[in-house]
Amino acid sequence: MLLRPIGTSGATVAKQQRGAGRVRAARAPYPEPYPTGHVGPSVDTQKLRHNVELLYAEALGRGTPEVLPSICHPSVCYCDAHGDGGHDCFGLRGLAAALERCTSAHPLLRVVLDSVAFDPSGATATVEWHATAAHLLPGSAGVPPSGLVSISYGIDQLTFQPGSGLITSILSIRDRFAAEAAEAAASGAASGDG
């Protein structure tokens, strides 16, 4: 007859007594690399990187908003962190209109991606970029050329829809182009006079 503590089964006590004199090998550690951070399905960052490159090179750099439905969610949200709200837009139509305004104001816009970094889950990306805006030609909206050539630097935070990889939101933190800075200074001076 086996004596066992209250609450344990006879099979458990028998197993403990059988292995009483043996030294057990330690369990093998996790295979390398040890899983850290987000553990889930692997994320195809190449597809996400392709979407980011299309957004900046094609939609913004070349002024072709036709690529937006293939890379952005229909309810994409764009927020310019200047805080004035004049550049915020919602949905594919709003984003296409904002890109059209930008490319018409700067017909010789050239956008270069400096770096793209994804978080381990693939849910967000941080994009560093710079753009050269040479306003030497009249814009498509009839804006006369100002002769200004300026460089703007920015960091954007993009959020992706899980599974599809479509861009759902863009938070843009950027310098102003020379024309925008002059416009803001003029409106600030005008509002200070009144």
Any idea how many domains?
1
Rg (CA only): 28 Å
In total, how many beta strands? 6
Could you name the ranges where pLDDT drops below 50 across 5 or more consecutive residues?
34-40
Could you estimate the helical fraction of the residues in percent? Answer: 25-40%
Along the chain, the helix and strand elements come as: HHHEEHEEEEH
Overall 3D form:
elongated
Mind describing the biggest β-sheet? Answer: 6 strands, mixed
Structure notes:
The protein has 194 residues and is α+β, with helices and mostly antiparallel strands. It has one domain (45-193): Nuclear Transport Factor 2, Chain: A (Roll). 31% of the residues lie in helices and 27% in strands. The protein has 5 helices and 6 strands. It has a 6-stranded mixed beta sheet. It starts with 9 loop residues before the first helix and ends with a helix. Mean pLDDT is 74; it is low at 34-40.
